[in-house]
Amino acid sequence: MMTTSNTQVLDKNTDLIPLNGTDYIELYVSNAKQAAYYYQSAFGFQPLAFAGLETGQKDFESFVVVQDKIKLVLTSPLHSGTTIGEHIDKHGDGVKVNALWVDDATFAYNNAIEKGAQSYMLPTKTEDSDGHVICSGIYSYGEVVHIFVERKNYNGVFLPGFKAWKPFYQPKGIGLKYVDHMVGNVPLGEMNKWVNFYKDVLGFKQIISFDDKDISTQYTSLMSKVMSNGNGRIKFPINEPAAGLKKSQIEEYLDFYEGAGVQHVALASDNIIETVTELKNRGVEFLNVPKTYYDTLLDRVGDIDENLAELRELGILVDRDDEGYLLQIFTKTVNPRPTMFFEIIQRKGANSFGKGNFKALFEAIEREQALRGTL
Ligand code: FE2
Question: Which of 37, 123, 160, 320 is disulfide-compatible with 325, CB 3.0–4.6 A?
Answer without folding.
Answer: 320
